[in-house]
Amino acid sequence: MAKEKATKLEEEELQPKEQPEKPKKKTKFPLLIIIAAIVLIAGAGGAYFFLTGKGAEHGKGSATKDSKEVQGINFALEPFVVNLMDQSGTKYLKVSVQIELSDAKLAEQAKNKTPQIRDAIITLLTNKTSDELITPEGKLLLKDEIKQRANQILGEGTVINVYLTDFVMQ
Length: 170
Description:
Elements: H1 2-14, H2 29-52, H3 54-60, H4 63-66, E1 73-76, E2 80-83, E3 92-101, H5 106-112, H6 114-126, H7 130-133, H8 136-154, E4 159-169
Antiparallel strand pairs: 1-3, 2-3, 3-4
Helix pairs in contact: 6-8
């Protein structure tokens, strides 16, 4: 009997052991599709709120109602190209100006008075030097002076702000 047990054990050792079945690998493809769909939907929702501005309105709350910012209409003037009043040589300035008017109705008045506005700005620019205009403070001062002169022509309080949309010195 002992021999039989020994031969059985030897036979069992010689026979390849049956390996337990490995669980079949499940593909992760459906999971990836679900994740991609969630990301796509979240991105579309974010884009909707960003483009429609509804998300920004929610965050503003009552602060928007309290602050009364005047939204005007921008009136663009043709670019100015002038000689600056430099002692060191001839310097040129090319600047594009937009003025923000307090009311849309004033755009027609500004259009009719464009020659007077342009003349006032050209006179102002030709009396400046490049040293005055090169600094940020100089540009702010120039904007204030343009605003004052435009308000003298169009009426006080008409011009809210002045924007320099192009500024090149040479």
